[in-house]
Amino acid sequence: MWLGSGNESEKLSWPAKNAKRREGTFWCAKFRPDSPTLGDVTPDDRVQHRVGPGGGMGGVGSEGRNPATHFVTFGDVISSAPNKLPVSVKQTMDALQRTLNIVDQPVISISTTEKRP
């Protein structure tokens, strides 16, 4: 299966010509319940993401004319394992997009310095 940040979801199928493309998305991911999720996140920019079904077209990524400020590739098993909170692919990818953007950087402030006695 593949999932896009615009809530598009569809089964991936062979051959490689059946790769999925979506314009204007922050992320895409492909996943199966029994194996790792592979995703690509462009936290600050909506771009065209592409997901391949496997074989020579097995990855995820961004392509096209719209450049991305930066991107993050994600790979992990996302499951609701015993003694862990249930997490979905969408929740994980949305959290990555929100926390890794460079627009909403944390504010760091330094208060007065202390002198050693």
Q: Mind explaining what this structure looks like?
A:
The chain has one domain. It is built from 1 helix and 8 strands. The protein has one helix at 89-99; strands at 2-4, 9-10, 20-25, 27-32, 35-41, 47-51, 60-63, 72-76. The strands form 2 sheets. A 5-stranded antiparallel sheet has the order 2-1-4-5-8, covered by helices on one side. The chain has a 3-stranded antiparallel sheet with strand order 3-6-7, with no helix packed on it. The radius of gyration is 18 Å and the shape is elongated.
- Strand content bin: 25-35%
Secondary-structure content class: mainly beta
**Globular, elongated, flat, extended or rod-shaped: what is the shape?**
elongated
Q: What's the story with the biggest beta sheet? A: 5 strands, antiparallel
The strand order across the widest sheet is: 2-1-4-5-8
What's the end-to-end separation, in Å?
63 Å
State the share of residues found in helices, binned by percent. Answer: under 10%
The beta-strand count equals 8
Into how many domains do the coordinates divide? 1
Alpha-carbon Rg, integer: 18 Å
Which stretches of 5+ consecutive residues score pLDDT under 50? none
Mean model confidence by pLDDT? 81
Count the DSSP helices. 1
N to C succession of SSEs: EEEEEEEEH
Element layout with pairings:
Elements: E1 2-4, E2 9-10, E3 20-25, E4 27-32, E5 35-41, E6 47-51, E7 60-63, E8 72-76, H1 89-99
Antiparallel strand pairs: 1-2, 1-4, 3-6, 4-5, 5-8, 6-7
What's this entry about, in short?
The chain is built from one helix and eight strands. It is mainly beta.
